[in-house]
Design a protein that fits this description.
Length: 213
């Protein structure tokens, strides 16, 4: 089985950019790599409901922390066969967001910390009940909420399908979410974590060597 590596961080932290750089670096190391981003917009009905709810469709669905958390979890449950196949057939499966995103954002919305009930619920639901594979390593791209918001705004202006959603426009939520991410990383939630300064150039090659050797 390959290694399951997850890139986590705030909206606008640079996860997609780092995923591409790390994939290229791993290929240079001779490793086979599969990639997947969650939510799986356009591929999963649950992910599409998420996108719509984040843009204020479906009444008060977006206001339900547990309702949204369940949709995120069901999106990943629907990808379980794909995840297991990718792990079986590749040296590394690299994910842009995974279970910890659900834990961090839901806890932040409820103003709980990493030891709260929501984080426990996510672990019980996604790992214990749905049987999703546990990460080997999680990489936290740490940036300030201000930097993340600026990047998300630039992305929204340059990409017609990336208008900022209700989470991305809630600056206080982003600050609280960053704090929960730090707690999850410090507590090695689900796996070991590597914390990377997302405001600097990411050393993809060095991290790649650490992951495949």
């Amino acid at each position: 089985m390959g290694r399951l590596v997850v890139i986590e961080g705030l909206d606008g932290a640079g996860k997609r950019t780092v995923s591409a750089a790390l994939t290229a670096a791993l290929h240079e190391e001779g490793a086979s790599v599969a990639t997947l981003a969650f939510p799986r917009y356009g591929r999963s009905v649950h992910a599409d409901f998420i996108r719509e709810a984040l843009h204020r469709e479906h009444g008060d669905l977006g206001e339900s922390v547990y309702g949204m958390g369940l949709l995120y979890a069901l999106d990943r449950r629907g990808a379980l066969d794909e995840l297991n196949a990718a792990l079986r057939d590749n040296d590394v499966l690299l994910l842009d967001r995974y279970v910890s995103s659900n834990a961090a954002y839901g806890a932040a919305r409820l103003r709980q910390d990493a030891n709260g009930e929501f984080v426990k619920w996510v672990r019980e639901l996604e790992i214990a009940r749905f049987g999703l594979p546990v990460p080997d390593t999680q990489i936290l791209l740490r940036v300030s909420a201000e930097v993340a918001a600026e990047r998300a705004e630039r992305r929204a202006q340059s990409e017609v399908d990336r208008a900022r959603d209700v989470f991305e426009t809630d600056d206080d939520l982003q600050v609280r979410c960053a704090a929960v991410y730090d707690q999850l990383a410090a507590g090695s939630w689900l796996s070991e974590w590597r914390v990377v300064d997302g405001t600097t150039i990411f050393d993809a090659t060095g991290t790649a060597r650490a992951l495949v050797h």
